[in-house]
Write a structure and sequence with these properties.
Elements (H helix, E strand, L loop, with lengths): L1 E7 L6 H9 L17 E6 L4 E6 L9 H14 L4 E6 L7 H11 L5 E5 L7 H12 L6 E4 L8 H11 L1
Parallel strand pairs: 1-3, 1-4, 4-5, 5-6
Antiparallel strand pairs: 2-3
This protein binds guanosine-5'-diphosphate and magnesium ion.
The site of magnesium ion has 5 residues, from helix 1.
Length: about 170
């Protein structure tokens, strides 16, 4: 099995951390400042039975200037070209302009979308269930999984779900 996986979501939700922890190498630039990742970064994760090519995209925000516009385009153009989309959100339940924008785009795309709720180390089960239900109601995600990229919690569960779609 082999396929392309793209990671999208608002700046700072942990996209680069997720990719790095899965790949086990520090490829993407991680930072507290949003939008450190300016270009699509590809990396390949190979195991005995499958291979995943990850595309780490710049954070998606409602474009305010030319550079933002360019970054949004880079993220968006990968969506139709991949096998699985990981839409990463964090525990804050902030659904900003960038998220709304992306959710609209995802409705029109046939590629399976796994919603990844990251930073579950910061919340309890009750809040997780609340977030889970909120996204489940949107009816656009093929699967929903909670992880902590930083603490490597549930990463194998996520990888297994990705493999199911390859
Ligand atoms: P990106 O902009 O979406 O690529 O986000 P980054 O991967 O650069 O992460 C942004 C910040 O969130 C960094 O300070 C990370 O250390 C932190 N972070 C990422 N994943 C987690 C997590 O699972 N739990 C916690 N508590 N922090 C995280
Ligand atoms: Mg990043």
């Amino acid at each position: 099995k082999s396929g392309f996986v793209t990671i999208i979501g608002r700046p700072n939700v942990g996209k680069s951390t997720l990719m790095n922890e899965v790949i086990g190498q520090k490829i993407a630039i991680m930072s507290d400042k949003p939008q450190t990742t300016r270009n699509k970064i590809q990396s390949i994760h190979t195991e005995d039975n499958f291979q995943m090519i990850f595309i780490d995209t710049p954070g998606i925000t409602k474009p305010k200037h030319k550079l933002g516009d360019y970054m949004l385009k880079a993220a968006r153009e990968t969506l139709g070209e991949v096998d699985v989309i990981l839409f990463v959100v964090d525990e804050s339940l902030t659904i900003g302009a960038g998220d709304t924008y992306i959710i609209q785009e995802l409705k029109d795309i046939k590629t399976p979308v796994i919603l990844v709720i990251n930073k579950i180390d910061k919340i309890d089960q009750e809040k997780f269930n609340y977030i889970y239900e909120k996204y489940e109601k949107m009816n656009i995600f093929s699967d929903i999984v909670g992880i902590s990229a930083l603490e490597r919690a549930n990463l194998q569960v996520l990888v297994d779900k990705i493999v199911d779609f390859l």
